[in-house]
Amino acid sequence: MRSWLTFGNLALLVLAVVLGIALYWVIYVFLAASPYEAAGIGINSRLPEPVRRFSCRILNERHPHMWPPLGCEKFWGDAPPPPALPPQ
Questions:
Q1: Which of 10, 24, 30, 82 is the most buried (most CB within 10 A)?
Q2: Which parts of the chain span the membrane according to its record (predicted)?
């Protein structure tokens, strides 16, 4: 009886997981309503610096008046701080 867990199937499984993570990261960078999604921050903060610089620049352009998410602090640029809350 042959096992379904062959080298080819394992390689396809790893490829599917990597592509799924990459697709989620692209959706986070280009379409997310907020730069503070935990999974997106987790993926983005572990990427190499040139890729992280690119994604942080895109996030900063899309959300210019927000604080930088974790991993984007040094790439966020000179965005103004968010507006102060009104006194209560």
A1: 24
A2: 6-31
